[in-house]
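Hey, resending since the last one bounced:
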Amino acid sequence: VTISKSRLCSRPLCANDADVLLLFDYETRLVELRALTVARDTNLLELCAHHAESFRPP
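The structure tokens again:
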């Protein structure tokens, strides 16, 4: 299965391709980075490698 590279990072003004999904579970206070899925879910953030590496949970 291949992921279309037309999916861009969700960060404002970033034109890099998305590489990972950022998931929040507010109930358990869990933050997780996962591989992109085939189907895009607009409720999840998709981040490029740079923003995934520099992300720090609040």
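The chain has one domain: 1-58.

Sorry for the duplicate.
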